[in-house]
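Try this one yourself first.
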């Protein structure tokens, strides 16, 4: 965590020395590292909460500002309102995390406006991570309190330490912006639970730019497997045995003779070689793993889109070709 603060402090120093952050003095700027957005009480308004972190710089807290909640009809107005209230211009180019209310996935007018403004030059980084919230995270004082006043750094560190998120990656603002225009993928958006500590409770599907259904963590893992985004995973067999699957190789192809699409998944159960099992026992375990994967993956194949011969993105129900070796 301390190392991360020095990185951010170094970025600020570069801005100061090179003048790349504009004409304002460094003390006239504010550097929020997390932003929560949710519908506000009031017709057509939204609540924006800017979260700050105190960054060490020669023992100075020069860059620290108090967290502030702004109500506005869009991000552009919130940006200007913030500047007037804090007597400092917000510099959101170092933003680490956006907490987006799940309700806003259905508000296309807001999303179009926010993406078009946020992705302008000198605003948000394309790598800013996006989490969804079920409650109004901007009103949740518990988030800042639990994370020691560092929700941005806390959530980024959480994503890098969580095996599922580290392997497949939390969607970024750039991912959502591109999908808003291209509408050709199925994104898995992690949803934080309301209680503390923050934790990914489930996922919400974004299907070709449109809000879809919710899936649990296990289903999300399997969708990531179908999409070819995993190189390893664990699965539990019926008897409780945990099987580690590694070296996952995936592919998708169209079978002209049947007119259907096929997903190929080949993986290694390396742990079997370290167990005192007979060849027959290893074979039975591999067969059980394939059978369970077939059963669990079959209803999820529709969430692995592919481009057909006409250049259109489709989500077919695939034929599964699974192989587990040891």
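Now uncover the answer:
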């Amino acid at each position: 965590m301390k190392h991360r603060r020095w990185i951010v402090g170094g970025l600020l120093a570069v801005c100061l020395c090179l003048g790349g952050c504009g004409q304002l003095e460094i003390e006239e700027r504010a550097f929020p590292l997390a932003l929560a957005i949710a519908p506000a009480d009031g017709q057509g308004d939204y609540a924006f909460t800017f979260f700050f972190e105190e960054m060490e710089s020669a023992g100075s807290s020069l860059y620290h500002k108090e967290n502030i909640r702004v109500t506005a009809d869009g991000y552009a107005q919130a940006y200007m309102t913030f500047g007037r209230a804090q007597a400092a211009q917000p510099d959101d180019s170092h933003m680490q995390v956006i907490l987006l209310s799940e309700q806003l996935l259905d508000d296309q007018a807001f999303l179009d406006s926010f993406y078009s403004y946020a992705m302008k030059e000198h605003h948000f980084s394309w790598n800013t991570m996006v989490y969804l919230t079920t409650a109004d995270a901007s009103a949740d004082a518990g988030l800042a309190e639990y994370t020691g006043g560092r929700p941005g750094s806390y959530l980024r560190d959480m994503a890098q330490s969580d095996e599922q998120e580290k392997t497949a990656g939390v969607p970024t603002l750039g991912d959502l912006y591109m999908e808003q225009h291209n509408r050709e993928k199925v994104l898995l958006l992690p949803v934080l639970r309301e209680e503390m500590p923050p934790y990914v409770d489930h996922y919400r599907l974004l299907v070709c730019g449109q809000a879809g259904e919710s899936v649990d963590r296990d289903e999300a893992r399997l969708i990531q497997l179908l999409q070819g985004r995993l190189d390893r995973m664990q699965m539990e067999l019926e008897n409780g045995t945990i099987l580690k699957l590694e070296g996952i190789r995936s592919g998708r192809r169209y079978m002209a003779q049947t007119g259907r699409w096929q997903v190929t998944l080949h993986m290694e159960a390396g742990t079997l070689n370290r167990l005192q099992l007979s060849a027959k026992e290893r074979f039975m375990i591999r067969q059980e793993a394939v059978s369970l994967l077939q059963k669990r993956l079959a209803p999820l194949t529709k969430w692995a889109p592919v481009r057909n011969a006409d250049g259109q993105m489709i989500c077919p129900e695939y034929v599964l070709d699974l192989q587990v070796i040891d």
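Discussion: Residues 1-22, 57-62 have pLDDT under 50 and may be disordered. The longest helix spans residues 279-297.
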